[in-house]
Amino acid sequence: MKVALVHDFLTQLGGAERVLDELHQMFPQAPVFTLVYDENKTQGKYTDWDIRTSFIQKLPWGIKRYKWYLALMPKAIESFDFSEYDLVLSDASAFAKGVKVKKPTKHICYCHTPTRYLWQMTDEYISTIQYPWFIKKIAKPFLMRQKLWDYKVAQKVDFFIANSLEVQSRIKKYYDRNSVVIYPPVDTNFFFPASDQLKANGYFLTAGRLEPYKKIDLVVKALKELDKNLVVAGSGSLENELMLESGKNIRFLGRVTDEKLRDLYRGAQAFIFPSLEDAGIMMLESLAMGTPVIAYGKGGALEFIKPGQHGELFYEQTKESLKTVLENFDPSKYNQEELVKQAERFSKQSFRSQMNSFIYKET
Description:
seven-stranded parallel sheet; Glyco_trans_4-like_N; about 35% helix; Rossmann fold
């Protein structure tokens, strides 16, 4: 079976890219079609892969300012030719599901989420995009047209796989499509606890892209007021602003390697996950390291974190709600074996087995 993989953008390293890594492990000969590929931002990780980009890659500032070409992205994703493939496997949170696939080729979409800025966060997206005011003024009508395109292309996907029950419900709500749930993989062979982990006097850890929707600012503000040590790993548009707002008890490390992140998980009292996420693979990585999670109590966190057993949840996305949990947090109450056991339910081996079973059943 000849397989092609499709990914929205290869311009960062995050949870979606971990899923892509595993799909590529399953189909190592498969080319990866993507709108834009930034070798520097992905730290040269994909230099040996067969990466095929759209025409946006060659446009002026097409790599660094690819969001300028939002209006061209539907046309760009539809321009790829899959006539020689038996299966197209897209992993999508935006455009990848919009590829044109003609029968008898099958299209399976592993959906991280229905496109958030179209279905859930339109106003927030418009307020934060760095466009001139006159473009922002026409943004909403334009996004409504793109929303229609998004719905139409979702009807042409042969099968949807959701990365969580939360996303499964949204796929049904917004696209009126059924799906099966296969949770994203955590590499429990790489993320595992050390025998000499010491957490009682450690720091709190948060990590991810420093963008408004990730809500890292809540963590920085809460820990600054409580004067508890915090380590922030990651980079993004809010990095300088957050550094200016922080206190001496908060360290910013920028983007870190997986090896460094593993060490950070090991030394942390807890990993703080403040955003509303569909799955949130970093929560699982933390659990695999034997480190409890403090998460915003909506979305995928409800599927992974049982309060008092795997960590704690805060139910309002405010610094006050987070501070209440932090003030009463005791890392010694959590059983490391229970945390690791929870993560092992979502191992790479489990993901691969479920994906293979589904693919070969439906193709």
